[in-house]
Amino acid sequence: MRFQRIGLIALLGLSTSACHTYTSVETPVVGSTVRVQVPIANALRNANEAPETASVEGEVVAVGDTLALATQRRQEYGAYREVIQYDTLKVGMDRPTLLEVREFSPQKSVLLGAVIAAGATVAAVTAFSGKTGSGGDDSGPGPGPTPAVVVSPSIVSMILGLFGR
User: Fold this and answer.
1) Best exposed site among 78, 92, 119, 154 by fewest CB in 10 Å?
2) Maximum pairwise Cα distance, the chain
3) Where are the domains of the chain?
4) Do residues 11 and 157 make contact, with C-beta atoms less than 8 angstroms apart?
5) Which pLDDT value is given to residue 107?
6) Which residues, 6 or more positions from 69, have their beta carbon under 8 angstroms from its beta carbon?
7) Are 87 and 67 within 8 A, CB to CB?
8) Which residues make beta-bridge pairs with 98?
């Protein structure tokens, strides 16, 4: 049971980091996907504290003295209505506190696939490893136990979460 919990925690950690990494850069390439941390200007800000930041992720449209990002935002209204809003945001290159480029990571993808396969194998072995003997005397074949497959709701929700449902 402890092995299953450790595996579930590892799977959740890998799935939240997805299959990409962020690398800090000075100037991004047009067409790349970047994550920008921008300080929030506030009149009530305490001068002795670090400014709060907002994180914005999008595709680089133009780079110069300003960074132009094409972003999209999804909002759901009820069960069947979803609105996707496309925006172009401009940020002065002197404003960002952190500028990171998102890159595909094949190592994380392979590791995530291996963890998913191992988790599915452990779940299958656990579900089908029940004793099948009738117990007691050996007088002949009896009805035996009723076969059953036990599926944990957490496993089902984890698998559905991987497919975005």
Assistant:
1) 78
2) 88
3) 1-19+105-129+149-165, 24-43+51-103
4) no
5) 78
6) 34, 36, 56, 58, 59, 60, 61, 88, 89, 90, 91
7) no
8) 37
Distance, CA of 11 to CA of 161 (rounded, Å): 12
Question: How far apart (Å, rounded) are the C-alpha atoms in residues 49 and 46?
Answer: 6
- Residue recorded with tokens 């960074």: 67
CA proximity to 71, closest of 97, 35, 102, 95 = 35
| C-alpha span between 159 and 120 (Å, rounded) | 10
The DSSP H or E segment spanning 106 is: helix 106-128
User: Which region, left, alpha or beta, applies to residue 81 given φ > 0 means left and ψ of -120 to 50 means alpha?
Assistant: beta
Q: pLDDT tens across 69-125, in order?
A: 998 888 888 777 888 888 888 888 777 678 888 887 777 777 778 778 888 888 888
Its CATH architecture, for the domain 24-43+51-103, is: Roll (2.30)
CA separation, residue 39 to residues 30, 43, 54, 95 (Å): 23, 13, 6, 7
